Amino acid sequence: MIASRYAFASALLVGLMVALPASSQNEETSVRGIVRSVDEAWISTDLGFRVETLPFREGQSFSKGDILATFDCGDLMAELNSAEAQLRAEQITYENNSRLAKLNAAGKFEVQLSKAKTDQAAAMVEAYQSKLARCTIKAPFDGRVAVMRAHAYEIPDRTQPIMQIVGQSELEIEMLLPSLWLKWLKPGVSFDFSIEETGGSLPAEVSRIAAVVDPVSQTVKVIGRFTGNTNGVLPGMSGPAKFKAPDG
Length: 248
What we know:
Layout: H1 2-17, E1 28-37, E2 40-43, E3 51-53, E4 61-62, E5 67-71, H2 74-102, H3 108-133, E6 136-138, E7 143-148, E8 163-166, E9 171-178, E10 190-195, E11 200-214, E12 219-226, E13 238-244
Antiparallel strand pairs: 1-9, 1-13, 2-8, 3-5, 4-7, 5-6, 7-8, 9-12, 10-11, 10-13, 11-12
Helix pairs in contact: 2-3
């Protein structure tokens, strides 16, 4: 991922080298941009259990809430059942000590101790329930599977993600522009983005400008958004973004 970011930055800098100066009035200036998805995530697990199901394959679409992966958590379920049984036992002890205390047959210490053990057992049950909930991974947004690294019946490495998912409902254009363009470049400035993979050109506009300028390359990161139909556009596609510098 880091290597790909460096490659992208290098490609954008090459594009900047061929861009026309910002001072050229009424001339079209062009820099390279790349399409990014607003929603993007690497999915991983820390359970260390065997993968049970992977309902979606690379390239397939899913909806928010769909199950992306399930794990064989039989051992964890057994531990939860044991914790729930322990909680019931502690509750019985606490209730019994409370009744005895009313009859002066049990001291305050015994009641407080049994109450603390009940709370401890309840916390253990909650911990197992929380862990058990992670045995099913659900999609956090609508999207598609970009990369699948896991297989059913395997025990995935806890230090490595099992899949990458990307959303396609909202796409952005990431660019590095000359910092001198900030004289006229503002959010809302329109430009045309030509996608080399499809051969089409789509209207877009600047949505955000980074808070800092790179003093070495004298560039600034700019994010644009499409203002037209993005059917057929995929994250990772790239091409020239064409701006028109205003007069003055």
